[in-house]
Every structure is written in C-alpha cells, then in structure tokens.
Design a protein that fits this description.
This protein is an alpha+beta fold. It has two domains: 132 residues, N-terminal domain of MutM-like DNA repair proteins (Alpha-Beta Barrel), CATH 3.20.190; 114 residues, Helicase, Ruva Protein, domain 3 (Orthogonal Bundle), CATH 1.10.8. The protein has six helices and ten strands, in the order αβαβββββββααααββ. The strands form three sheets. A four-stranded antiparallel beta sheet has the order 1-6-7-5, covered by helices on one side. A four-stranded antiparallel beta sheet has the order 2-3-4-8, covered by helices on one side. α1 packs parallel to α6 and α5 packs across α6. It starts with a helix and ends in a 15-residue tail after the last strand. The protein binds a DNA duplex (16 and 16 nucleotides) through loops.
DNA sequence: CTTACGGCCTGGGTGC
DNA sequence: TGCACCCAGGCCGTAA
C-alpha cells in the first residue's frame, strides 16, 4: 500500500524522467476513479510536465499548458491501495486494470494501473487551499519535534487513529503507524493526551527513523506496490510487526498479536507495548 | 469541534 | 469447480 515512503520513492523516480517531457496524448479506460475525465482529456494533451511533487500520499505532476494561455495546473494522483504509476515502453505488455495511458514526447508511456480503483485522479489548479490539499496536516519528516508534540499531546483520540489521520500528519498509513509504535514501545490504543514527554519524544524519533529507512529501501512491497520503473521495494524485509502476527517480537520474543483499533488492524508486541488501563465506558 | 463507528467502494486470496 | 467471506485505505455520514 503506497504510503509516504512508497509515494516518495515513486516521486523521486518520476522526477528523473518526467520534467521537461510533453504529454502528447491521453487514453482512458475505466474512469470512475477520476474526478473529471473530460477535463483530463481536454487539458492534458500538449501540456509539458515541469515538476513532480509529493504531498502526503498524493503525487502532483505540475503541468504547463502549451496552448498559449500559460495556465498552470497539476495532475493530482492518489494511489489508494493498489495504484501503480509506471513509465515504460509503449510496446510493453499492458497489465490488467490499467486505465490511464499518457504518451510522452520521448517515445515512452506513463501508465496508471489500479486493481481496486481505490485511487483518485484529477486536475487541480494552482490555488493553494482550493485543491483540498490545504487541509492536510504536517509532513512528519518536515515537522519539528515541538510541532509534532503539539499535534498530539492534547488529543483524547487513540494514538493509532491520530497517526493515521491525514489532517494531523500527512503520509502515514497502517504499515508505518504500526512499525513506528512498536519502535517507540507505545500501544496503539493509548490516548494522545496520556503519552508522557518521553513517549512523545520516542514516537517522534521512531516515526522519522522508520520513514527514512523505508525511503532508503525504496518502500514496502506487500502485495501490489512497485516503484515508477516497476521494481519492488525492500522495506517489507525490515517490518517488525506489520503482518507478523504469531511470529516472535524482535526485541523480546513474545508473539506478535493483531487486534482492531479504531476499525483498522493493528500489529503489536503485547509485552513491549503495554496496553492502557481499560477506559470507563463512554455514556 | 472532537471522537467513535459503521458502511461503502472493488476484486484477489482463502477456505470450505 | 464454485462461492461466500474477509480484508485493505480513505472518506463520508451519523451520533454522542
């Protein structure tokens, strides 16, 4: 599942080939995951790619129209769970569930493939807040420790839910939330406001270490993720809890457990990450 | 406003 | 061989 490290890896890969390229034509398959397919077909052909950016789990291809109006806009892509954005030779076999083809002026092709179609694609204009990205939280790799602490320390929600909330921090998903909490030795059901200063410090460090190491290893390939050239990532070999249910904790040997926290599966070591005392039932 | 939760989208994998 | 069921991330509606 593409989270911050996977999207960052894809962005870096696309950045080596796309800037300066002109998109000659667009071909669409299924379009139910595209905000305005007609706008894509109308606006994109002839546009030049000027930059590739990541914003949380979103990718942005900044485009410059060639039709004289000089109206700049961006193609916004969210890969959902199974989305892939890959450049390849146009003659390469087309994988099933490939729904968007961009023909580039260097003879290559940029393709979007998405089995589940939980991804999203659309055109956004340069206006900062208008495109919906303005409401997202801080990038965990850009936030200072004091900013990070401020985001969490007064919240009564569970820390797992806070880490996953894109309006608090942008880019963290289930894999990196679980891995960070294990590294910081914090149970996912702890409330933000109940974490000690030391725990918040450990969590800040853990989130950054996990994300940076995952970027270094080019992301986690669980089921569908590949980078912009179709290559697998390597961080799945470094997972300490995610999808290791029943296996031994790397720190203490206790068996890793899977539980549901705020509707999401959570993987944890019951010994390293001690559970909070049961909360009084809300009424 | 904040938190909690259920439902929805889709289709591959699993287990019977 | 078939088929019901589970599950994934994000988002939205609802309720307290």
């Amino acid at each position: 599942m593409p989270e911050l490290p996977e999207v960052e890896t894809i962005a870096r890969g696309l950045r080596t080939t796309l800037p300066g390229r002109k998109i000659l034509s667009v071909r669409l398959g299924k379009t139910d995951f595209i905000d305005d397919p007609v706008a894509i077909e109308r606006e994109i052909p002839g546009a030049r790619i000027v930059a590739v950016r990541r914003h949380g789990k979103f990718l942005l291809l900044d485009l410059e129209s060639s039709n004289g109006t000089a109206r700049n806009f961006s193609l916004l892509v969210h890969l959902g769970m199974t989305g892939r954005l890959v450049t390849c030779d146009p003659q390469a076999p087309v994988p099933p569930h490939t729904h968007v083809f961009f023909a580039l002026d260097d003879g290559r092709e940029l393709r979007y493939t998405d089995v589940r179609r939980f991804g999203r694609m659309g055109i956004v204009t340069e206006e900062p807040q208008k495109n919906g990205l303005g409401s997202l939280g801080l990038d965990p790799l850009e936030a200072s420790e004091s900013q990070f602490v401020a985001l969490l320390k007064d919240r009564r929600a569970r820390i797992k839910a806070l880490l996953l909330d894109q309006h608090v921090l942008r880019g963290i998903g289930n894999i990196y939330a679980d891995e960070s909490l294990w590294r910081a030795r914090i149970h996912p059901m702890r409330l933000g406001a109940m974490l000690s200063a030391d725990e918040l410090h450990r969590l800040y460090r853990a989130v950054r270490e996990v994300l940076n190491e995952a970027i270094r290893l080019r992301g986690s390939s669980i089921a569908d993720y590949v980078d912009s050239e179709g290559n697998l990532g390597g961080f799945q070999r470094r997972h300490r809890v995610y999808q290791r249910t029943g296996k031994k904790c790397f720190r203490c040997g206790t068996l890793i457990r899977r539980t549901i926290v705020d509707g999401r599966s959570s993987h944890l070591c019951p010994r390293c990450q001690s559970a909070p005392r049961a909360r009084r039932k809300a009424r």
